[in-house]
Design a protein that fits this description.
The chain has helices at residues 30-86, 118-132, 138-147, 152-155, 158-166, 177-188, 193-202, 210-221, 228-238, 241-249, 261-289, 388-393, 419-422, and strands at 320-325, 328-339, 345-351, 356-358, 365-366. The protein is an alpha+beta fold and 438 residues long. The two termini are 93 Å apart. The protein contains 13 helices and 5 strands. Among the domains are: 104-188; 193-283, no CATH class; 315-371 and 400-438, SH3 type barrels. A 5-stranded antiparallel β-sheet has the order 4-3-2-1-5, with no helix packed on it. The radius of gyration is 47 Å and the shape is elongated.
Length: 438
């Protein structure tokens, strides 16, 4: 079994103390200052070179150690297969159906289009061979593995197969399962896998269930070098606002010294499960509460859902109403009720001054003191002259009726809807809503 190589010697760093670099006292001291600065920069450059050399050597050593470990694992698998083959059949068993191993499905073929499937392919093939053909030789195992390759993965083997089979020049790793997997890993393992996982880990957020988020978090966060506290904080930052609110409502301090990543994840998983149960219960109860005794949805009118703070009377056509404009009462009659572009009922008001306007119900009130407009004077018979009162008003225009209390037109002070006379406020109540059920 191959052993990992020894570690590289420690670097030879030069001690650098920037504090010894003093500013020049005068012009004669300037050369000394630049000389000291030059020596410090040279020392720093030397240390950087030492660091880069050691880092490069460590990376090379790590690669060699990994290759040696892969070879050891493959050799161990082969030894286990040979040991399993030498174990005798337990006494009392006879040949026949009882001694046959269960038939397994052949592993899915690997075409090299997705390197992320390389590890899964190796696990599936190794498990299949170990279970179905424990006594297979190395050549038989390699031949079976090659039969499971297609596309680019099989094209990769063509030159070596040609050399080994056609040219009759043996290729050692085609006759050793461990060596074959070493070559396979070198070709099909994902390059910079840690770098890719680190990029995905930094932007990972919970978008579905906590269970799925935790699974991805563990997969991408492995071997990144973060300690448990950092992993815990990363996990908390990726949770949804709803989960964080529930943690806060339960006085759960995720940053406490006693809280680990496992503790936080377990708490979040339980909260998510409770939320799922609550949503399922709410959905089932909500669908039944919207149905009446016969199972149909109740027909609730807008007026029934209106605020109960103030009782509002229903208004209809020919109803006397008033509104307040700039602190002055404006009276009129509902001439018609129709629907606007939004499908809501709106009244058309014919004001006492003769104008007509389409407004909303929440801007008008029922007039408890309407003005009785006098009927027009009867026309005089032809040939008769004007009456005595008509002589005084002859040549004069008809004056509008003006309230002496609020200054509004169309009503007298005795019928003013302001507070001193009617007891009704001149401001529209905020609790009144539009009467849409007319």
């Amino acid at each position: 079994m191959s052993q990992p190589t020894a570690t590289n010697p420690a670097p030879n760093y030069v001690q650098v103390n920037p504090n010894v670099l003093g500013l020049p006292v005068d012009e004669s001291d300037v050369p000394r200052f630049y000389t000291d600065l030059k020596n410090i920069l040279i020392a720093i450059n030397h240390n950087l070179q030492e660091f880069m050399a050691v880092t490069t050597a460590d990376l090379a050593t790590a690669g060699t150690n990994q290759q040696a470990l892969d070879q050891s694992v493959s050799a161990l698998e082969s030894n286990m297969n040979r040991v399993m083959a030498t174990i005798p059949t337990p006494a009392g068993r006879t040949g026949g159906a009882s001694t046959r191993a269960p038939k397994l499905s052949s592993p899915a073929k690997f075409d090299g289009s997705d390197k992320n499937k390389a590890v899964s392919f190796r696990v599936a093939v190794t498990h299949y061979l170990r279970t179905s053909y424990p006594n297979a030789t190395a050549d038989e195992q390699v031949a079976f593995i090659i039969s499971c390759l297609e596309g680019k993965a099989h094209d990769w083997l063509e030159p070596s197969l040609k050399q080994d089979v056609v040219q009759n020049t043996p290729v050692p790793w085609l006759h050793d399962v461990g060596q074959f997997w070493v070559q396979f890993n070198a070709r099909w393992n994902v390059a910079n896998k840690t770098k890719n996982f680190r990029a995905k880990f930094k932007v990972l957020k919970q978008t579905k269930l906590v269970q799925e988020y935790y699974k991805d978090f563990q997969m991408y966060g492995q071997n990144l070098g973060y300690n448990d506290v950092s992993m815990r904080d990363f996990f908390y930052n990726g949770l949804t606002v709803k989960i964080k609110e529930m943690l806060m409502a339960q006085d759960f301090d995720h940053a406490a010294d006693t809280v680990t990543l496992f503790t936080l994840a377990d708490k979040a998983l339980k909260i998510d499960q409770h939320l799922e149960q609550f949503q399922a219960q709410t959905k089932s109860s909500g669908s039944s509460s919207n149905a009446g005794p016969s199972g149909s949805k109740s027909n609730t009118s807008p007026s029934a859902a209106a605020p109960t703070g103030t009782a509002r009377e229903k208004l209809s056509v020919r109803e006397k109403v008033y509104t307040i404009v700039d602190g002055k009462a404006h009276k009129g009659t509902i001439a018609a009720i129709s629907k606007n572009s939004k499908g809501k009922n709106v009244p058309t008001i014919k004001w006492n001054d003769g104008s007509t306007e389409e407004i909303t119900f929440n801007t008008i009130k029922k007039d408890s003191h309407p003005i009785v407009i006098a009927s027009p004077a009867p026309q005089l018979a032809k040939g008769s002259g004007p009456g005595p009162m008509d002589l005084d008003s002859a040549g004069k225009g008809k004056k509008p009726i003006i309230c002496n209390t609020c200054g509004g037109k169309g009503h007298y002070a005795s019928a003013c809807p302001s507070k001193p006379y009617s007891g009704q406020g001149a401001e529209i109540s905020e609790e009144e809503s539009e009467n849409e059920d007319l």
